[in-house]
Amino acid sequence: MQNKYLKILLIALIIAFIVPQITLAAWYNPFSWHFWGNFWNYFFHKQTPVTQQVPLTSGTLRNATITYPNPYDTSKNDTFTLSGGHAIIYDAGNIKPRAYDVAATAVGNLNSDGMAEGVIGIYQGYGANIIVPIVFVFSDKNGVLTQIDSVLPDASIWNSETQIKSISINNGVLSVNLLVLAEKDQSLPHYQQQASIAKTVQYKLIDGKLILQPTDQTAGWKTFVGVNVGVSFSFEYPSSWTYQKVSCNLDYIAFCPLVGNSPSNCGMTCAMNSPNASIYLYTFQGSPAIGVASQNIKYWAEPNASLNLWDNKYKEIYTEMISTFKFITPTDQTAGWKIYTNSQYDFSLSYPSDFANVNDLTATQQNSLQTYMEVCFRNNNNPNETDFCYIGNQTSDGFAAASLNIAASASTTMQDCEKSEGYGPDGEQAQTQPTTINGIIFYNAQLADAGLGHYVSTDSYRTYHGGTCYTIDLNIESDRGVSEKGLSADFSSMMHSKLKSIISTFKFTK
Question: Is the pLDDT reported for residue 47 higher than 50?
Answer without folding.
Answer: no
